[in-house]
Automatic annotation (TrEMBL):
InterPro entries in the record: HTH_17, SinI_DNA-bd
GO MF annotations in UniProt: DNA binding
Protein name: Helix-turn-helix domain protein
Domain of life: Bacteria
Domain Helix-turn-helix, residue spans: 37-85
Pfam families xrefs: HTH_17 (PF12728)
Length: 104
């Protein structure tokens, strides 16, 4: 059985483009990969605690964070791992974010 397409090339390209965009959009908008950086306020909301509690954990180095300039930032995947066992996290997990082109 052969399907016939009664479309000119512009219409065909437009339809293919729409289908490709439709298929790729969920992948491109996937913010759940755990690699996104969160602020203190976002982590506090995520953990359902006050921001002051998060700052206390930063000060005592009991929560995994990175510094972006002078601002603490958190990777969701690190927070999730820390939640599994908050007592086993090492202080080597705390490091500043690398600047573009910088080697450590």
């Amino acid at each position: 059985m052969k399907a016939e397409l009664n479309l000119n090339s512009d219409e065909l390209v437009a339809r293919i483009t729409q289908e490709v965009v439709k298929q790729l959009k969920p992948l491109l908008n996937d913010h759940d990969n755990g690699n996104e950086l969160m602020t203190v306020e976002e982590v506090a909301n995520y953990l359902k605690v006050k921001p002051s509690w998060v700052y206390e954990k930063i000060h005592t180095r009991k929560i995994p964070f990175q510094k972006a300039g002078r601002f603490p930032r958190f990777r969701k995947k690190h927070i999730d791992k820390w939640l599994e066992n908050p007592y086993s996290f090492s202080s080597s997990a705390y490091r500043p974010l690398k600047k573009e082109g910088e080697h450590v």
